[in-house]
Amino acid sequence: MANSKVFLSDLISGRCSSTVEVRLLRLRELMSVDMLLRDSKHLDSAS
């Protein structure tokens, strides 16, 4: 993934909103996967 910087002035003007939306979606997906892995480890240790 490219390492691009997003500045507050760009967010306010709306120039980088799609970049931020994509990053937030990726973060949400990663958090969801992490929670699934934690749940599966918990279920394995409980049985």
Automatic annotation (TrEMBL):
This is (rape) hypothetical protein. It comes from Brassica napus.
